[in-house]
Design a protein that fits this description.
Elements lengths: L3 H6 L8 H5 L7 H15 L1 H9 L6 H17 L4 H7 L3 H13 L12 H4 L1 E4 L2 E3 L8 E3 L5 E4 L2
Antiparallel strand pairs: 1-4, 2-3
Helix pairs in contact: 3-4, 3-5, 3-7, 5-6, 5-7, 6-7
Length: about 150
């Protein structure tokens, strides 16, 4: 009998199925396992998903699948920064809600209001240099590029 992952991807399944081992961590319902598999496979591609899962030892496959699910949800909600960006800005609950929505079979969309630069800890800095002697007040930009400083 096919596991929920193979059933939704329409591929053959056996006792040593990589997806069956990977879906062990999702114990909600068989349909939640199928929804998660379909979402991750659509995001990364079926072949890439299978390649990722086969590249790690068997005992790490459930953790890898959960990580891929979180990253796929995070990138869907916040395409620029993904799950790490949501965690970093204190919006991890958005990623968790997206995962729950996927497991229930719902659809998720990108956040309508992207975090502002100051919320991400980025500051726009233009270096200025003085021209001439101390009495001149003219300044010019040292470079036309915008530099980003990260504050940790």
């Amino acid at each position: 009998m096919s596991c929920n992952g193979c059933r939704v991807l329409r591929k053959g399944c056996n006792e040593n199925c990589i997806l069956r081992q990977s879906l062990a961590a999702i114990q909600d319902t068989p349909q939640a396992q199928a929804n998660a598999t379909l979402f991750v496979a659509k995001f990364f591609g079926r072949a890439t998903l299978m390649s990722f899962l086969s590249a790690v030892p068997q005992h790490q496959r459930p953790a890898l699948f959960q990580s891929l699910l979180l990253e796929a949800c995070g990138r869907t909600v916040n395409p620029v920064n993904g799950a790490v960006g949501l965690l970093w800005t204190g919006n991890w609950h958005v990623c968790e809600s997206a995962v729950e929505t996927v497991l229930r079979g719902g659809t998720i969309q990108a956040m309508s209001n992207a975090p502002q630069d100051h919320q991400l800890g980025l500051t726009n800095v233009k270096e200025e240099t003085r021209i001439g002697n101390a009495s001149e007040s003219a300044t010019r930009s040292a470079s036309s590029e915008t530099k980003l400083l990260y504050f940790f």
